[in-house]
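Researcher: Structure for this, please.
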Amino acid sequence: MLVVIGLSNAIPGLPGLDNAVKDWTGIPDFRIRKFSTEDFFALAFAVMMLIVVLKHSIARHWRRAGGWRYALGVFLDTALVVAGLGIALTYIIEIEAICLIDQIT
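Model: Predicted structure, token format:
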């Protein structure tokens, strides 16, 4: 799914493609290419970190060792996902186009 979204972001501007998709979906603001970086980069990074943990889980690799190794693996997998989400959230909070701190205050 991440590859399809990334490829759709890189589709060249084909004449009539945007209007055809908008007519097909019925959503006038639907975008299939050139997503805004404020939304796309943070979401793509968070999804990539989740994919890394699901594909290459340390806990799954160390399950047979059991005990403290398995617990450490679960902790490290969880820490990677939390760090990825934290970095994505920090990007959304601090980027000038959105800057949630300025909007709240």
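Researcher: Any notable elements?
Model: The chain is about 70% helix and 0% strand. The first helix runs from residue 2 to 9.
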